[in-house]
Amino acid sequence: MLGCTLRNHYQIIEFLGQGAFGDTYLGKDLDLPGHPQCVVKHLKPKSLKPADLLIAKGFFDKEAETLYKLGKLHDQIPSLSAHFEENGEFYLVQDFIEGHDLTKELILGKKSSESHTIKLLHEILEVLAIVHQQNVIHRDLKPANLMRRQDGKIILIDFGAVKEISTMIVNAQGQTSFTVGIGTSGYMPSEQANGKPKPCSDIYAVGMIGIQALTGQAPYTLPEDPQTGEVIWRNQAQVSNNLANVLDKMVRDHFSQRYQNAEQALQAILSLSPPPTPPPPTPPPTPTVYQSLGNKSPQPVKISSNSLKTVQFETVTVNSKGQIIKRSQSQAQVFTETIVKDITLEMVSIPKGSFTMGAPASEAKSYYFERPQHQVTIKPFLLGKYPINQAQWAAVAKLPKIQYDLKPDPSHFKGKNLPIENVSWNDAVEFCVRLSQKTGRSYRLPSEAEWEYACRAGTTTPFHFGDTVTPDLVNYNGNYPYGTAPKGIYRETTTAVGSFPPNSFGLYDMHGNVWEWCQDIYHDNYNGAPIDGSAWESGGDSKNRVQRGGSWVNNAVYCRSADRLYVSAVIRWWGRGFRVAVASVSSSS
């Protein structure tokens, strides 16, 4: 295989590994500029009759369809580039992941801390929840199939179902069955070993990974209780009863006693708030992105009465089923910035005020990292009426470079009035600095506190619309509603900015459509968070920045006012955009 080129397209350059299902190679995609690397999986069904080969092809095509769908849903699942068959052998081509697998982190004999283990379980389950929502079972979760990408994110690789092609058994009557268990000893529960995997079979595997992290022992070396069949592990770890109880439920011998899917397990893990991190010593001031402009600090926009325009709009309130129960007329003051001829930016004046940031524990499906709730006082500022759209992005991308190159048209979904997406935090900051240089006003990303204050617009419910939302009001995956709202449409794309009703501040698309970058470094909770509305740029996970609001691909729960997402500052994805902010004072100040 080495040196050959498949379909005059994929050149095989290196052997990566061999398994029961076939071989894996590193390849080059000769059709794309720069010949990016890819992974080519060569699946070789052996000893199959011609009729069985047709059945195998059917499973192969179905598996490829599943992998293609999953790769579109989440950037932590490798995208499928191609699948094809030649001479009775099958090939899958997927993204090559730069990074290392978790065998490099979960070293035998080395025990991980409880807080590190909770974070690891959270990272795995968050992606696995997306997989389970699509009625897909991974079937081979283990450290070797979990990659830590260079941006720090966990990537699920090597979905076990592709191995079904090579585990087909032809019985004496010539019928084909799939009774061989697919998985790895120690991570595979009994029902999966018997060829009857369920979503909770994946939960068993994740639980064993957590136990491996805490004990420093390979799962297959741990003893079992001869009476119950349960794994005996607590005596090998320093662990709280709360986490131990969750892990015990994840690895129950009988599947009916486990969490039934990744979402249930994720909620259990998220309820385990890690011990608060003590605030670090006062650090030196963090350099701001505005230093390249020669400003010591962001300069506010001076607002006069004749620079603002009053706009009228209607807001709606819904009940717990998502039905509109109230319509109200409201108004906002809007400042219009001209970027270039015919391309403007509308900025809504957000009044000063105080609010309770974060979600109460009583809010359904809220997470520990949305707490503790705390009072924050916000100074007046201006915030984009809409997320930045593609026409605005293209105009600013043409302005002189400050630090980073900007692609003029990076979005996956195309349309001048669609929100910009597939942009990193670094890209968004570069946009702000270029816009600032052009206008003389220091545009920036909003702080996380400013974003939530603006989103809530005086409300305390999970959404500014009320206790829930529907796809008539928000662009999200309508197959997964929140609370008692009904299922609805899943558009599978972004929508034009301003397509849905605004909140009472006059801001559109604060829930759904695209995640929005904030200025802040990510922290696991709000212990020590600023209470003056400023961005939190010390301590925390310095590689990751905060996003808010949910997106077109997410469940409704991720679109709540209090929900938070942490993402590497360098990662781009179809569901990530931003809106801009700028401080404001009255012209008389």
Which characteristics define this entry?
Phosphorylase Kinase, domain 1; 6-stranded mixed beta sheet; 23 strands; paralog of FGE (formylglycine-generating enzyme); 20% helix; single chain; 589 residues; alpha+beta; 3 domains
CATH superfamily of the largest domain: paralog of FGE (formylglycine-generating enzyme)
Distance between the termini: 73 Å
**Low-confidence stretches at least 5 residues in length (pLDDT < 50)?**
162-180, 274-298
How many structural domains are formed by the residues?
A: 3
Q: Count the E strands.
A: 23
> CATH class of the largest domain, please?
Alpha Beta
Largest sheet properties: 6 strands, antiparallel
Number of helices: 9
Tell me the fraction of residues in β-strands, as a range.
15-25%
What percentage of residues falls in helices of 4 or more residues? 10-25%
Query: Radius of gyration over alpha carbons?
Result: 26 Å
Instruction: Give the strand line-up of the largest sheet.
Output: 1-2-3-4-6-5
From the 3D structure, determine the CATH topology of the largest domain. paralog of FGE (formylglycine-generating enzyme)
The shape is globular
Mean pLDDT: 87
Q: If classified by CATH, what would the architecture of the largest domain be? A: Alpha-Beta Complex
Judged by helices, strands and strand pairing, the structural class is: alpha+beta
